[in-house]
Amino acid sequence: MNAVASDNALQEEDRLRADLYGFLGTLMAGPPSKDLLAKTAGLTGDDGDLGNAISAMARVAAVTKERAVESEFNALFIGVGRGELLPYASFYLTGFLNEKPLAALRKDMAAQHMVRADNVFEPEDNIASLFEMMAGMITGRFGDAVTLERQTEFYNKHIAPWASHFFADLEAAKNSVFYASVGAAGRAFMEIEREAFRMNAA
Question: Which of 66, 87, 115, 185 is deepest in the core (most CB within 10 A)?
Fold first, then answer.
């Protein structure tokens, strides 16, 4: 394989990573619309752990109604007072919201020229926002595409310490049906990313 082909393969791999970060981030940001459920139902995966999780998510999406998944999302993440789960780095790492992990994230966001949208009121260490940031860093949405080394630093600092735990909790949550399959896919993806970043740093 020549150098050009290798570069193209790497670019395709990065595009797929960014797409999956973006897709999972969208699912975590709000209940999926009928169209997004239909697109999810059309996904296929290979025989690996992540591929199997994506195929399972597609099967669940195919039999999930928009109103049902909205109720599920509300029970999981909004609730009366609070939902079953709090998908924030600060909460998972300290037990409280708006703690040091959020302050550290805001510092790193400023360094990457990332700002919270005016219509977003959630703390930035929400899993959906972090995945949107990773997707944007890979694709260059916030300027030049971020190097793999910088991606590794961001992932290890803001995502790796808690995301797998969160997705495992999402799989097992009392109110999870469709989102149990999202949790399985997210956990499998995090395992792949963690190992890939570890190998790159070796």
Answer: 185
